[in-house]
């Protein structure tokens, strides 16, 4: 066999194989590779979209947390204001009640002083009559001298 003929046959077989590969094998391989590249690109795009959505969701969560925190602080401040108002109201009520009790005690004390004065006047009048009776050595009629005793009682 001749080396040139063998070489020529190998070239023909190689070109037939190359043509067959380029015509029937290569397009499906390239299509599969393109589809795989497209899937990878879509996956990466979806991952980027997911990251963006995650970042946006995290921002919304942070905003909601800040809003909830502000609302909680506002409610706490309102509760503290309400508590202070209740304390002030209780102090005012207690002060009013104390003033009322003091006024009632003063009125009661004044009434007792007046009653004690009246009792003392009566006792002094009785003592005055007894003293006058002893001085005069005669009996003084209390019924007959009631006006005089009442006048004496009023002066004391």
TrEMBL record:
- Please verify whether the record's keywords include Transmembrane helix: yes
Kindly name one Pfam family recorded for this protein: ATP-synt_B
**InterPro entries given in the database record:** ATP_synth_B-like_membr_sf (IPR028987), ATP_synth_b/b'su_bac/chlpt (IPR002146), ATP_synth_F0_bsu_bac (IPR005864), ATP_synthase_B_chain (IPR050059)
Q: What is its main location?
A: membrane
Q: Which UniProt keywords apply?
A: ATP synthesis, Cell membrane, CF(0), Hydrogen ion transport, Ion transport, Membrane, Transmembrane, Transmembrane helix, Transport
* Organism domain of life: Bacteria
Share what the entry says about its subunit structure, partners included.
F-type ATPases have 2 components, F(1) - the catalytic core - and F(0) - the membrane proton channel. F(1) has five subunits: alpha(3), beta(3), gamma(1), delta(1), epsilon(1). F(0) has three main subunits: a(1), b(2) and c(10-14). The alpha and beta chains form an alternating ring which encloses part of the gamma chain. F(1) is attached to F(0) by a central stalk formed by the gamma and epsilon chains, while a peripheral stalk is formed by the delta and b chains.
Q: What is the name of the protein in this document?
A: ATP synthase subunit b
């Amino acid at each position: 066999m001749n080396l040139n003929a063998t070489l020529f046959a190998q070239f023909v077989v190689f070109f037939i194989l190359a043509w067959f590969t380029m015509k029937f094998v290569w397009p499906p391989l390239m299509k599969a590779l393109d589809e795989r590249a497209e899937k990878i690109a879509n996956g990466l795009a979806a991952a980027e979209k997911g990251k963006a959505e995650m970042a946006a969701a995290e921002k919304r969560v942070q905003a909601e947390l800040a809003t909830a925190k502000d609302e909680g602080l506002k409610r706490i401040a309102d509760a503290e204001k309400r508590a202070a108002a209740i304390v002030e109201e209780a102090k005012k009520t207690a002060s009013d009640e104390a003033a009322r009790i003091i006024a009632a005690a003063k009125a009661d004390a004044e009434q007792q002083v007046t009653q004690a004065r009246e009792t003392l006047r009566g006792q002094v009048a009785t003592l005055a009559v007894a003293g006058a009776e002893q001085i005069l050595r005669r009996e003084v009629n209390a019924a007959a001298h009631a006006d005089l005793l009442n006048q004496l009682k009023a002066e004391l």
